[in-house]
Write a structure and sequence with these properties.
Order of helices and strands: HEHHHEEEEEEHEEEHEE
Shape: elongated
CATH topology of the largest domain: Rossmann fold
Radius of gyration: 37 Å
Number of helices: 6
Strand content: 25-35%
Number of domains: 3
CATH superfamily of the largest domain: Cell division protein FtsQ/DivIB
Largest sheet: 9 strands, mixed
CATH architecture of the largest domain: 3-Layer(aba) Sandwich
Length: 250
């Protein structure tokens, strides 16, 4: 009986020892994980401090003609103050894309202290309402003097800028094979369209059937009207068949 009791006590003692060892092991592991997480957090914080890894060099790639270089420099300078690891690339990209005339932005951090910035601009298709440039996508941006003399003039309500661009592209494709080009396209507030073709011939198209009316004008031009175009002030195409011609005085 005593031997059996001794064995029970020994077994209990061993179980208690194992439980204590497991508890200690669990505490040790928990402490180890906490220590590891703390070290990671400290490391991240340390790496994000600008003085530790400042950006010393910014390379700007892309031909800039229309976007404001002052706004670009200001946006980049403010962003790089956060340092190599602290730089918010997404925020900087959004800020640059918000600058008029900028279409695409690519940013790349190059170890250990360089930020590479690639910028692509919208290309102007025409002058919009004599005050801005407009791209083929309908994007508006400021006029840069000395770089717009060759561009056609588009005019219309501000909220319909993209529609005016689409009509210009469609009508220019119709008129181009005849050797003419649209110098000016205007959408009036009541929805009437008219174009000025080189050198100074006004073609009134009205509100409907623009492509077919312009096609009739092109056919008449090629059949003989072009020999008289220097004497013509305007051509009114707002007729189901035919046209009205206004002659220059004198």
């Amino acid at each position: 009986m005593k031997a059996r009791g001794n064995k029970k006590r020994q077994a209990t003692t061993k179980t208690t020892a194992i439980s204590a060892w497991l508890s200690q092991l669990h505490l040790t592991q928990s402490f180890g994980w906490l220590l590891l997480l703390w070290l990671i957090a400290v490391g991240i914080y340390w790496h994000q401090q600008p003085p530790q890894f400042p950006i010393h060099k910014v390379t700007l790639q892309g031909r800039l003609q229309y976007a404001s270089t002052k706004l670009i420099d200001k946006s980049i300078n403010e962003a790089v103050n956060a340092g190599f690891f602290g730089l918010d690339v997404t925020a900087l990209k959004a800020k640059l894309l918000a600058i008029p005339a900028i279409e695409k932005v690519k940013l790349r951090r190059i170890w250990p202290d360089t930020l590479q910035v690639q910028i692509e601009e919208y290309q102007p298709l025409a002058i919009w309402n004599k005050t801005q440039l407009i791209s083929a996508q309908g994007q508006l941006f400021p006029i840069v003097s000395g770089k717009i003399t060759h561009l056609p003039q588009l005019q219309g309500p501000q909220e319909q800028a993209l529609m005016v661009v689409r009509h210009y592209q469609q009508l220019q494709n119709i008129i181009a094979p005849s050797g003419l080009s649209i110098r000016q396209l205007e959408l009036a507030s009541r929805g009437a369209w008219q174009i000025m073709v080189a050198p100074d011939l006004l073609v009134i198209l009205g509100t409907t059937d623009l492509p077919s009316r312009l096609t009739r004008f092109v056919n008449a031009y090629e059949k003989g009207l072009k020999t008289q175009v220097g004497k013509v002030a305007y051509i009114d195409m707002r007729y189901s068949s035919g046209m009205a011609v206004g002659w220059k005085s004198g």
